[in-house]
Design a protein that fits this description.
heterodimer, A: 4-stranded antiparallel beta sheet, B: mainly beta, 7-stranded mixed beta sheet, 4-stranded antiparallel beta sheet, 11 strands, 49% strand
Chain lengths: 119, 108
C-alpha cells in the first residue's frame, strides 16, 4: 500500500523559512516523479512543484518560483520542500503526491497533508 | 498556462440520481491528459479518472469520464451517500499543471 506522510508544517512569521518532508513507502520511490500541491483554507487545489525521479528536472509554479525549492533523497525515500521568504498567502495545507508510472505529472496517490500557517 | 474552468460550482442532487460535472480547458492538448479527483472534507484528494476516461484502480463503475479537446465531463450514474464531495479536474498535458476551481456535489 502506498503511504505518503508529510511533516514539517507549523506556524511561521512572514519572511521566515520552513522545510517540509514527505516520507514515502509502499512503492519504488526512486523511479517515481513526485509533486507538491497546496490548498489554502476553504479554497481549491494549487499545484506547487514537481520533481523527476532522479531530480534532474524540476518545475515550479510562478507563485513560488525563486522562494521554494524541491529536492529528494532516494536513499531515504523522502521528498522535501524548502520554503523561504514565506508570505501570508502561502498559508495552506501542503500535500505531497506520487507521480503515475505512465506519466509523472499525473498524481495517483496523495498524503494527508501538513498545515503551514504564515502569520 | 492552461486555465481549467469547472461548472457548475455547486450541484444539488438527490441520492440515486445522475450527476454530470463539466470542465473546460482554455487550450486543447494532446492525448486528452485530463484527470478528475474527489475530495471529501478533511481528506486528501483521490484520483478517480485519468486520460479523460480511464478509471483509476478501485474506482466504482458508476464514475465515468468523457470528452476531448477542450470539453470534458465526469458523470456519476447513481449518486451514493459517499459520493457527496468536491470534484476537481486537472490537466497534466503542459506545465504548469493546473486544476479547475472545483464542483461541490451536495445532497438535494
Amino acid at each position: 500500500e502506498v503511504q505518503l506522510l508529510e511533516s514539517g508544517g507549523g506556524l511561521i512569521q512572514p519572511g521566515g523559512s520552513l522545510r517540509l518532508s514527505c516520507a514515502a513507502s509502499g512503492f519504488t520511490f526512486s523511479t517515481s516523479a513526485m509533486s507538491w500541491v497546496r490548498q489554502a483554507p476553504g479554497k481549491g487545489l494549487e499545484w506547487v512543484s514537481s520533481i523527476s525521479a532522479t531530480a534532474n528536472v524540476k518545475y515550479y509554479a510562478d507563485s513560488v518560483k525563486g522562494r521554494f525549492s524541491m529536492s529528494r533523497d532516494n536513499s531515504k525515500n523522502t521528498l522535501y520542500l524548502q520554503m523561504n521568504s514565506l508570505r501570508a498567502d502561502d498559508t495552506a495545507i501542503y500535500y505531497c503526491a506520487k507521480g503515475s508510472p505512465h506519466n509523472g505529472a499525473l498524481m495517483d496517490a496523495w498524503g494527508q497533508g501538513t498545515t503551514v500557517t504564515v502569520s | 498556462e492552461i486555465v481549467m474552468t469547472q461548472s457548475p460550482a455547486t450541484l444539488s442532487v438527490s441520492p440515486g440520481e445522475r450527476a454530470t460535472l463539466s470542465c473546460r480547458a482554455s487550450q486543447s492538448g494532446s492525448d486528452n491528459l485530463v484527470a478528475w479527483y474527489q475530495q471529501k472534507p478533511g481528506q486528501a484528494p483521490r484520483l478517480l479518472i485519468y486520460g479523460a476516461s480511464t478509471r483509476a484502480t478501485g474506482i466504482p463503475a458508476r464514475f465515468s469520464g468523457s470528452g476531448s479537446g477542450t470539453e470534458f465531463s465526469l458523470t456519476i450514474s447513481s449518486l451514493q451517500s459517499e459520493d457527496f464531495a468536491v470534484y476537481y479536474c486537472q490537466q497534466y498535458n503542459k506545465w504548469p499543471l493546473t486544476f479547475g476551481g472545483g464542483t461541490k456535489v451536495e445532497i438535494k
